[in-house]
Amino acid sequence: MMYTFKFQDQTYKIKLEEEGRQTEVEISGTSGTDRQCSFTEKKIPLEFQKIDESFYSIIVDGRSIGAGILKKGKKVEVFVGGDLYEFESISEREREISKGVISGVQEIKSPMPSRVVKILKTNDDGVKEGEGVIVIEAMKMESELKSPIEGKVKEVKVKEGDAVESGTVLVLISSE
Amino acid sequence: MFNKILIANRGEIAVRIIRAARDLGVKTVAVYSDADRRSLHVAMADEAYPIGPPAPGESYLVIEKIIDVIKRSGAEAVHPGYGFLSENNSFAETCEKEGIVFIGPTSEAIRLMGDKITARRIAQEAKVLLVPGSEGAVSDVEAEVIAKRIGYPIMVKASAGGGGKGMRLVRKEEDFKGSLRMARSEARSAFGDDSVYIEKFVERPRHVEIQVIGDSYGNILHLFERECSVQRRHQKVIEEAPSPAIGDDTRRKMGEVAVRVAKAVSYRSAGTIEFILDQNGNFYFLEMNTRIQVEHPVTEMITGFDIVKWMIRIAAGEKLPFRQDDLSIKGHALECRVYAEDPEKNFLPSPGKLEYLRTPSGPGVRDDSSIYNGYEVTPFYDPMLSKLIVWGGTRQEAIKRMRTALCEYIVLGVKTNIGFLRRIMENEEFVRGEIDTSFIERHPELLPPSLGEISPALIAAALAMRNSTKEVETSKQAPASNWKLLSRKLAVSRNPLI
User: Fold this and answer.
1) What is the rounded average pLDDT of the residues B450-472?
2) Residues B337, B236: Cα–Cα separation, whole Å
3) Which structural domain range is residue A164 located in?
């Protein structure tokens, strides 16, 4: 079975071949924009045990790996070697769609529960890609959220001082 | 000794203080904001009282609320921990007036050392070297003249500052005016006071500090140094003791100087004198922290001295039973601060629920934390999850232990800096002890996992996807426990009929 994952704008393919109790794995990565990546690992024998709900012991060609795994729909969080990887499992069709040009209306969402400190743009203001639109504060740290595209502000959905949840849509930007 | 003390703090330090109090047979009172009802310090303390909304300004920082709970609970003393009210001299003063014992220094010592400019003057009078700079707060014009005299690069710092706020490095004269303006505006919004001072910037400085402890009878000892050079945004990330950069001679001199500064304010309780160490082994007074430090455990590990317990004993009127000569360093200790943050996104805090947690253990491993499976990291407080401390016979052994311990962690649900910490432990410069305060800036390659590290993660992800479609089958495949098989075998062999 072939699995395709997206991680930090890169696509990885991994093939698990199972014959009876034998499992073999083959991994390949495509080259990304910021980090060069091109590797293929050919058919490595693999064996694993699910220790509890989220803890797996995996033995890959004799190398033992303890991994934490949390599956949320199409998203898989994997914790191994101290690092948390957030993979998105994608089908071939979804890959085609994601290659399409970004257009229409884009949302700027709050990445975490926070407070709106300052709104830098108002309705109908023009914005460049990467230009700051809104400043939020969480855990004593301010961060500026930037427009993902060039366009104009369609709607500011919050006001200064508002407390917002993670994922709340703060501003809509239209590509005109 | 006290019968009952109140802990005016939360998180791991509240848990640490509860443990110390328990050792002494002292009852503990916790206070908690609405966001902390499910926090560990509340569950561990003997008594717990709510003090209001999550925002610290409406709960943990409100002196009247804390004093009210102290009175209602009948606690005789209060331990402020670090942060919050720990260096607030009016809180200490209120306690003094109300007849409540403040487990820490006098309000006078906090006041004197809390003002950076006064602290520099005290250090100077105690014949302690300072980094060349302005004698105090300066006007824009004075600042420019002094900057010219001491030469670039220089640092502009907020008089009321801390935690890197209101701090600006200026490398060239033409950048001076702009940086000064920004430092003032940051200082004004962070501390409500825009006065700044300037000092010479030491190239590739190391941050080395001396732990001191004094009793109420004028005895002041030092517990050697800690090196805290590995920092991000002026916040410590990895601390160790002893420092790999200094020898016995510098260690002795630094200790003497620190004790001199502490004596200048008749210091009582635990405190820390911070120094900047340059590449030639010269050290300069930076500031004194009049509280327990986050990184105190590394000192405890190499000296066997329980600092938090002694803070309580000293507050209860006990006398330090040792002399300086009785203390010595044994082995080496490291501390890693585990944060819920994303090193790849400029260390942006990562609040959320800990969906799964496994923590390290083993010989010489100490995990000072207040987290648990299902713990919710809220956006209201510092995102530190845990302090992982290890002890080893040598620095190299401690580093190896730290690597093992970091690899034992499993944290799902929030981003952490654990992998980043592990890569630092594997970095050759770090292993050789070649660190300074710019270490993290110089090593951006350590922030993300290296390319080779992704394969095991991908395999795990694929297994997760595979398993979700074959959940039932997998559970069927689980082998019978070996213990069961063994007991069956034994039962069979013991059967007298066979």
Assistant:
1) 78
2) 8
3) 101-174
pLDDT for position B159? 83
Laid out side by side, the sheet with B101-102 consists of: B47-50, B27-32, B4-7, B77-79, B101-102
Chain A residues within an 8 Å CB radius of B416? 82, 84
Q: Are residues A12 and A83 in the same domain?
A: yes
- Is B356 in Cβ contact with A54 (below 8 Å)? yes
Residues A54 and A112 in one domain: no
Domain count, chain A: 2
Decide if pLDDT at B494 tops 70: no
Domain of A23, CATH number, reads 3.30.700.30
Same domain, A73 and A141: no
Which chain A residues contact residue B461 at CB under 8 A? 3, 5, 14, 69, 76, 78, 85, 87, 89
Q: Which of these three, A62, A94, A126, is where a domain ends?
A: A94
Do A59 and A115 share a domain, yes or no? no
pLDDT value of position B362: 97
Confirm or reject contact between A114 and chain B (CB < 8 A): yes
> Smallest Cα–Cα separation from B391: which of B363, B423, B359, B431?
B363
With contact defined as beta carbons under 8 Å apart, do B459 and A65 qualify?
yes
- A66 and B410 within 8 Å at the Cβ level: the answer is yes
Same domain, A85 and A106: no
pLDDT tens figures, A48-91: 899 998 999 999 888 899 999 999 888 999 999 999 999 999 87
Domain co-membership, A89 together with A107: no
* % of chain A at pLDDT higher than 90: 28
- This model of the complex carries an ipTM of 0.82
For residue B80 the two structure tokens come to 């402020």
In this structure, the answer to whether residues A7 and A89 fall within a common structural domain is yes
CA–CA gap between residue A53 and residue A69 (Å, rounded):
8
Together in a domain, A40 and A109? no
Q: Which of A47, A65, A94 is the last residue of a domain?
A: A94
Q: What is the pLDDT of residues B318-353, one digit of tens each?
A: 999 999 999 999 999 999 999 999 999 999 999 999
Write out residues 6-65 of A within 8 Å (CB-CB) of B: 7, 12, 14, 16, 25, 27, 29, 35, 37, 39, 41, 46, 48-50, 53-56, 58, 60, 65
Which among B161, B74, B63 has a CA at the least distance from the CA of B116?
B161
Residue B240: name the closest of B186, B299, B327, B312 by CA.
B299
- Tell me how many degrees the CA angle B333-B337-B342 measures, rounded to the nearest 5: 145
